Amino acid sequence: MPASSGTTVSIWMDTAHIPDRQALTTDVTTDVCIIGAGIAGLTTAYLLAKEGTKVLVLADRGVGAGETERTTAHLANALDDRYVELEKIHGIEKAALAAGSHTAAINQIETIVRSEKIDCAFERLNGYLFVPEGESNDILHRELAAAHRAGLTDVTIETRVPPNTFDMGVHLQFPDQGQFHPLLYLKGLADAVEKMGGIIHTNTHVDSVKGGETAVIKTANGHTVTAASVVVATNAPINDNATIYTRQAPYRTYVVGLKIPKKTLQKALYWDTQDPYHYVRVDDSQKNHDVLIVGGEDHKTGQANDAGLRYQRLETWARKRFPAATKVLYHWSGQVLETVDGLAMIGRKPLDTDNVYIITGDSGMGMTHGTIGGMLIRDLILGTENPWADLYDPGRKTIGDLKEFVKENANVAGEYADWLRPGKHDDVPMKTETGMVVRRGTKRIAVYCDAFGKKNELSAVCPHKGCIVHWNSGEKSWDCPCHGSRFDRYGTVVNGPSSRNLVMIEAD
């Protein structure tokens, strides 16, 4: 069932308009080529340009037009995977490093906002972690102790509900968190990069990345970029290999934005401990009302096709706790990459030359992990020692993540069974603006029936590693259930790790 109302677009896309830059039209040489114009790519470009490095940014679409425009933009050191779990996997010292890095990331964002005078509604506020109704508070006490061991000694457990919130019951309070408008922040970052001499090209698709004494980047329009270093910051790396995609799993997450009266809910970040958990914040940029932003209902990408039901569940959950909410103004979904050990992969790409870097594995903390990525990659390229280098090293080996590694890769292996399933016959009737994978002999065909009843046919085989894509009716896209590559209804790639489109099947 569909959400009760609302547009399928994020509030950020509706309230920010970032002009495109010129596409790359010639071969060029630079110090550092950065692929991706989300928060990770532009933070890296900004921090390097500030050090006098010549930077070039290539974006497949526009600035922020990937997952950054779909975030709810929580800026937190209260990590999604909880300090209790991070301690088990990484130990107390590394859990403390993780806490410190996310705190530093929020501080870095604030510093950039202030120094560049970026009007993006940045502010500090509290974060509240609570358990679902009727569940034990034990996790809160254990998480409090782990957070204190990680150095977050200002976190407290509270029994009194703050004014203008809701009945959370016993909860943890994380002070000095943050929120902002992510696209307005990126607009300011992009402008600052260009003022410092950096160059940004949008609508420039990268076909290949090759390391070596000099890195070589080939674009779809036939141009070549050569660089001393290259940074792939495309959410899922488009220069992927088994050392990366086997250690992280793509998840689809859902968001609804509900209209609420001004100042009826304290501006704060709210999270529960449910699995998958709910996350909440308030946007007060509208003149006559606020927007309650509620997210959750995650599932593995390509392994469910019930977006309307998930939006409805979020709406029901929100209305139960926030009765002042009226109509749904927005609903949208985004993609997160959950690593097997809960932390991003930032640094030199394994099994490649030392001048090829990646930023991936946001683990639901994209705004801070992306900022950490920019800070760490800057230091690695400039040869500056950074205490987080080993923690986020993409080639790290962590014994504590073995169980999750086996579980996620067994799930992927199971998806290849689509090749063995009978599949629908290609004469099945289709409604307009829907998609379906059909069988034609030994082939699997992704068929989209457009608004005029015309059928557009593509190979259903993901170019990345050969999984069969599934139709996503919520986004009207083809999603790979193995590694999360996504393609629009006509087969154009919109999410890596694939860098190639689905193959078009010519009509007889």
Comma- or semicolon-separated keywords:
508 residues, Rieske Iron-sulfur Protein, 9-stranded mixed beta sheet, 8-stranded mixed beta sheet
Would you kindly provide a written description of the structure presented here, covering whatever features stand out?
The protein has helices at residues 11-15, 39-50, 83-90, 92-116, 138-149, 182-195, 242-245, 307-321, 366-382, 389-392, 402-415; strands spanning 28-35, 55-58, 74-75, 123-130, 156-158, 171-179, 199-201, 206-210, 215-219, 224-232, 248-260, 269-272, 279-283, 290-300, 328-339, 345-348, 356-360, 424-425, 434-440, 443-449, 455-459, 470-472, 477-479, 486-488, 493-495. It has 508 residues and is of the alpha+beta class. Among the domains are: 16-70 and 183-241 and 342-407, FAD/NAD(P)-binding domain (3-Layer(bba) Sandwich); 421-495, Rieske Iron-sulfur Protein (3-layer Sandwich), CATH 2.102.10.10. Strands 3, 4, 5, 6, 11, 12, 13, 14 and 15 form a nine-stranded mixed sheet that branches. Helix 2 (39-50) packs parallel to helix 6. The model has no long low-confidence stretch (mean pLDDT 92).
